[in-house]
Write a structure and sequence with these properties.
2 domains; Cytidine Deaminase, domain 2; alpha+beta; 10 helices; 46% helix
Length: 241
């Protein structure tokens, strides 16, 4: 029997299945990741690896590039709200879940690094955790890290979620929660969705109001950290409190 010699004949031959053109690309990308690690891949290539499992029968390179073009980076893409991700053509629930799973895993790992050690001796881990969980959110969030007398993490709680540029904060509720947890110190964290972590006058005044209530009751305010995609700012580091 003569064997088919061109693509048209291959497709017409019963039982002959040609691998999609992107399968070779997927294997090359996986091999590069295995051999050289994530640093050898661009943001869109790393995102391709995330999307492979959710979209096994599709060339995901154009989709990965579209996500980076829309959101700016790998971190911003996986941290984007699910409803905004679904606005991207071709991105269904399975792919959104894969992306949000990556974001959740990153947050869980960085939180674990904070909990393993005294918070004040692992300040870089605290910053990494805050940026991972909040820096790329599209609305302001206000989070409190409650610490015990050894400066170890008792609880990490998201207190409020606001709008794109404002979060309502209630100092007495924060102090009340600290007393309930027997906390002796807190670190306050919030994000600026604009990306610029520079503290506003409202940020400074709100921090001072909480300090005025908390410190007479034995709860120290170690710092107020503001995070954004362009970096972070510490009010204590800036000597604003």
């Amino acid at each position: 029997m003569d064997m088919p010699t061109d693509n048209a004949e291959r497709l017409q031959t019963p039982g002959f299945a040609e691998a999609p053109h992107y399968h070779g690309h997927r294997e090359r990308l996986r091999e590069r990741f295995r051999e050289a690690g994530a640093d050898a891949l661009s943001d869109y290539e790393l995102l391709e690896l995330v999307l492979f499992r959710a979209l096994p029968r599709r060339d995901v390179k154009p989709l990965a590039k579209a996500l980076i073009a829309r959101f700016g980076s790998f971190a911003e893409a996986v941290q984007a709200p699910a409803e905004r991700l679904r606005e991207v053509g071709g991105l269904g629930d399975a792919a959104v879940i894969e992306m949000k799973l990556v974001a959740a895993a990153a947050a869980r790992v960085t939180k674990g690094q904070v909990k393993q050690r005294t918070v004040l001796s692992s300040w870089s881990a605290v910053i990494d955790y805050c940026r991972t969980t909040m820096a790329f959110a599209d609305k302001e969030q206000f989070r409190i890290l409650f610490l015990d007398k050894r400066n170890q993490l008792i609880a990490d709680e998201l207190q409020q979620v606001g709008t794109v540029d404002h979060t309502p904060v209630y100092p007495r509720e924060i102090v009340k929660r600290g007393l309930e947890l027997s906390a002796t110190a807190v670190i306050m964290v919030h994000n600026h969705p604009s990306g610029d972590p520079t503290p506003s006058q409202a940020d400074i005044q709100m921090t001072k109001s909480i300090m005025a209530i908390a410190e007479p009751l034995g709860i120290a305010v170690h710092d107020h950290i503001i995070v954004g995609k362009n970096g972070h700012a510490s009010l204590k580091g800036l000597r604003l409190i």
